[in-house]
UniProtKB/TrEMBL annotation:
Pfam families: Alpha-amylase (PF00128), Glucodextran_C (PF09985). Keywords: Metal-binding, Signal. Residues 74-93, 195-222, 696-722, 877-898 are annotated as: Disordered. The keyword Transcription does not apply. It comes from Rubrivivax rivuli. Coiled coil: none annotated. This is Glycosyl hydrolase family 13 catalytic domain-containing protein.
Length: 898
């Protein structure tokens, strides 16, 4: 029956919606039958299929589940009596377990996923020392070889493995090698004597210290424990740029293991080998891999220890000759840079090319996908990231790609549904192992919301709707990737990327090397992937396809329906008018059609050269009898200027540069005779001066909440005396219709190594545009309304891990509004404790002037939501106010631009 399902789900299903519905039904039916058969076999005592040969990892699509939040199959294991279980409380266990996950495999398989990645299932410290947060996520281990009872039993885990393998799917387990839970801390640490200042957290539940040897030897005051050296006996990291702290200090209070100790290495190999042997795990994802040395993984994978061999050997003995292990290295490169990508690659290959880990999470690609499709950055930056990815990574097909996960904002917290579909299609048409984070297919905006009705964030209903538009769209994308293997095994060549604004991006996927020779001629044809990231039509001019003129391109897939076939023009060029927020895929065929005869010629020249200092003239010629041209700047057809040539074909026009504010940005202009010809593009830059229009200091020490309040910071040492939310200055600059905000703080810190360069503060900036009707007064998620009769049209929310811009449409106390692109670009100057945001004119409505605009800046902190407030401060919550009090620690007052 599995073969029948594969047969039904052929390429034609991409063109026939009725067949696709049948295909999904067959898949779901087969998956449901397989799951029931697995349960019946287990109940009858039949042997379980725990071990299966390794798949070709390039072709896999993983579905990442936070087990506690996915499905509750056994309510009896929810509450372990430690105060850790509280449905509806985001900080507590909600009840999801392995049995519930198994019951929902048909749902997962219907998406086209080929494997399930689960958060760590091992026994955990259930509550943090203060009792405010729980380890529902699984990353606070107390025993690496036992299953956490909240998730079920070892038999439940084996049954899940059997059910997956029976359906040709794989099981990926999240693991941790650098820390346990938080069983001790330091007050007054001294490097010379780790016993001094050592503070055990003796009241943790369910055990006061890890129960598994040798990790139970965690007290340096005991000479035997100290001599064993299982831990590094260090305080929290305060500087993530310090390699010693990164690899030897505690991350957020979690006890750091001495992974340079052979005893620790052996214990970890033996612990995780247990899950491969006993359960049949097919792959591991390694949490926080950056916090151990890259060389550690050579031992972890390949140690020649007869009692505890490396994981590659353990897996080989169970029939897995390609055991996949990929690590997490949280590093995002800015455009044009690849230092973080190279650091990530150092965990895959050593300096002499020696293998370490098979793969790593591709965080730089994640950042570029979000920038292009959620935040409106020029898509050329994503194109550059793709090109760098191929150069930096020795095996880009084993890098693991994603668009959001449990540690960052959901894509839809700041991006649109249209942008989400584009990001998913890009991920499915690039090298790498794609990961779908649970709930994406249901439009989740909270990073750790529940899929089942009783869990936090579910909205009180189950969220397994297989007819949801995003679910159906993802199923079609995974089918596209599976049908055309060049998308999972081929190599991209970036052909075009708009360098100035949202717009066109295109790449070509080809087979390379010996694998190309093994393909049939029809299979060797390249596939073209084309996007328009703008909110209006864009021009993709003269794309160099590398194909003979007349080649027919067959439309394979489009986000809004299959695109029409296209024909390559003279010189192998193809000019396309792309709809807003579109994503389209074509495949070259052996078919030929007569290319359009190009009798029209268009020429264009710039006045004043490649650097302009204001509006400027362009001119040119076109073949006589062409009645009109369009002057298109940066591909933007919505603002194209119509030009009428004279009788001899000469023409001229003036380029408006009011919205061009970055002298480093390369713009492009073409003259286009639609359906006939396009000129060669001409590039230029614009140097425009920024002017300071407002510079207002803010009092020191007024970061205590609204007037009359006495809010206090969280008690975690990461805040301490740093007062990161104390706003000290607001300086505003303008350049035409663009806006730049410089926000000075008491101090910038980076305890959690945030990609945006600052943490423990979130800025929420409200902007009222002059002369623009409408707007809102509510301050979403902050339990407050704007002061001074102000109304906002734009709202910027930015923290260490997020940068989202919203418009007022749809905004309410619980809804942030409508995502707007392009969002702000961000810069941090730690020397002056200043964070700067630049909003281009395109985001601000392209107003001729911002005079009279009003701005209101607030500070708080954000972690998947605005941090809680209560009468007493907690480790990660503010104190001194009511739970429903305003989430404002400091504010600028309403500022009016002169």
């Amino acid at each position: 029956m599995a073969d029948s399902a594969a047969c039904v789900c052929s390429e034609t299903t991409l063109q026939k919606s009725n067949t696709l519905r049948v295909c999904r039904l067959v898949r779901r039916t087969w998956a449901g039958v397989a799951a029931m058969a697995a349960a019946s076999a287990w109940a009858a005592g039949a042997p379980l299929q725990l071990h299966a040969p390794s798949p070709d990892w390039r072709d896999q699509v993983l579905y990442f589940v936070m087990t506690d939040r996915f499905a509750d199959g056994d309510p009896a294991n929810n509450d372990q009596g430690a105060g850790e279980y509280k449905p509806g409380d985001r900080t507590r266990y909600q009840g999801g377990d392995l049995r519930g996950l198994q019951q929902r495999l048909a749902y997962i398989r219907g998406l086209g996923a080929t494997g399930v990645w689960i958060t760590p299932p091992v026994a955990n410290q259930w509550l943090d020392p203060a009792g405010h947060y729980t380890s529902y996520h699984g990353y606070w281990a107390e025993n690496f070889k036992r299953l956490d009872p909240h998730l079920g039993t070892l038999d439940d885990y084996k049954a899940l493995s059997h059910a997956l393998h029976s359906q040709g799917m794989v099981l990926v387990q999240d693991i941790v090698v650098n820390h346990t839970g938080n069983f001790f801390g330091y007050s007054g640490w001294q490097r010379s004597d780790p016993a001094l200042g050592y503070t055990p957290n003796t009241h943790t539940r369910p055990v006061p210290r890890p129960s598994q040897p040798p990790f139970d030897q965690n007290d340096p005051r005991d000479p035997a424990h100290r001599a064993a050296g299982i831990y590094h006996w260090t305080p929290d990291i305060t500087d993530y740029t310090d390699p010693e702290q990164e690899r030897r200090f505690q991350m957020g209070g979690l006890d750091d293991l001495a992974t340079d100790n052979p005893v620790v290495r052996r214990a970890l190999r033996e612990s995780y080998g247990h899950w491969v042997r006993e359960v049949g795990v097919d792959a591991f994802r390694v949490d926080t891999a950056f916090y151990v040395a890259p060389e550690y993984f050579t031992d972890f994978m390949r140690a020649r220890d007869p009692l505890a061999p490396g994981l590659a050997e353990v897996a080989r003995r169970t029939g897995r000759r390609d055991f996949f292990v990929f690590g997490e290295g949280f590093g995002i490169d800015r455009p044009g840079q690849d230092a973080q990508a190279r650091k990530i690659e150092s965990y895959v290959r050593g300096p002499r090319g020696e293998p370490r880990l098979p793969g790593m999470l591709n965080f730089p690609l994640y950042g570029a996908l979000g920038d292009a499709f959620a935040r409106g950055r020029p898509p050329a930056e994503l194109g550059d990231r793709i090109t760098r990815m191929l150069k930096v990574h020795s095996d880009p097909h084993r890098m693991v790609s994603f668009i959001d996960n449990h540690d960052v904002d959901r894509f839809l917290a700041g991006g649109s549904v249209a942008g989400l579909k584009q990001a998913l299609l890009a991920m499915m048409t690039l090298p790498g192992v794609p990961v779908l984070y649970y709930g994406t297919e249901q439009g989740f905006t909270e990073p750790r919301a529940s899929m089942f009705a009783a869990g936090w964030g579910s909205g009180g209903r189950d969220r397994y709707d297989t007819e949801a538009p995003l679910y159906r769209a993802i199923a079609e994308m995974t089918q596209l990737r599976r049908t055309h293997r060049v998308l999972s095994r081929g190599w991209p060549t970036v052909l075009h990327g708009n360098a100035a604004t949202p717009g066109a991006l295109a790449w070509r996927m080809d087979w390379r090397g010996p694998e190309a020779q093994r393909r049939k001629p029809a299979e060797r044809q390249p596939v073209f992937v084309v996007f328009n990231t703008a909110e209006s039509d864009t021009l993709l001019p003269a794309l160099a396809t590398g194909l003979p003129a007349g080649t027919v391109l067959e439309g394979l897939h489009g986000l809004e329906g299959r695109p029409a076939d296209a024909v390559v023009g003279a010189g192998g060029l193809l000019t396309l008018r792309l709809p807003p927020r579109s994503g389209q895929v074509w495949r070259a065929t052996a078919r030929r059609a007569a290319p359009a005869v190009v009798a029209t010629r268009v020429q264009l020249a710039l006045a004043g050269g490649a650097v302009q200092r204001g509006d400027f003239e362009v001119s040119g010629t076109v073949s006589p009898a062409v009645p009109r041209l369009q002057l298109v700047v940066d591909g933007d057809l919505a603002r194209a200027l119509e030009v009428q040539p004279d009788a001899s074909g000469r023409w001229q026009a003036r380029v408006d540069t009011a919205a061009m504010v970055d002298p480093a940005t390369e713009h492009s202009v073409v003259a286009w005779a639609e359906g006939q010809a396009v000129s060669a593009p001409r590039s230029f830059r614009v140097e425009r001066m920024w002017q300071t229009v407002l510079d207002q200091p803010d009092p020191a020490g007024d970061d205590t909440g609204p007037p009359g309040a006495a809010y206090t910071y969280p008690t975690d040492p990461g805040w301490g005396e740093n007062r990161q939310m104390d706003l000290r200055r607001v300086r505003v600059e303008t350049a035409g219709g663009a806006l730049r905000l410089h926000l000075g703080l008491h101090r910038i810190t980076t305890p959690w190594s945030p990609p945006n360069g600052f943490d423990h503060v979130n800025f929420t900036v409200y902007i009222e545009l002059p002369g623009v009707p409408g707007g809102a007064t509510v301050m979403p998620l902050q339990n407050a309304s704007l002061p001074g009769g102000m109304r906002w049209h734009l709202r910027l929310r930015a923290g260490g891990w997020s940068n989202a811009l919203h418009g007022a449409e749809g905004a309410s106390a619980t809804n942030e509004g409508t995502p707007v692109t392009p969002s702000a670009t961000l810069a941090v100057d730690r020397a002056s404790n200043t964070v700067s945001f630049t909003l281009p004119a395109a985001a601000l409505g392209r107003l001729p002037s911002l005079r009279g605009a009003r701005i209101y800046v607030t500070t708080w902190d954000y972690d998947g939501g605005y941090r809680a407030l209560g009468p007493e401060p907690r480790a990660y919550a503010m104190g001194g106010g009511r739970e429903d009090g305003p989430r404002v620690m400091d504010e600028s007052g309403v500022l009016t631009l002169p």
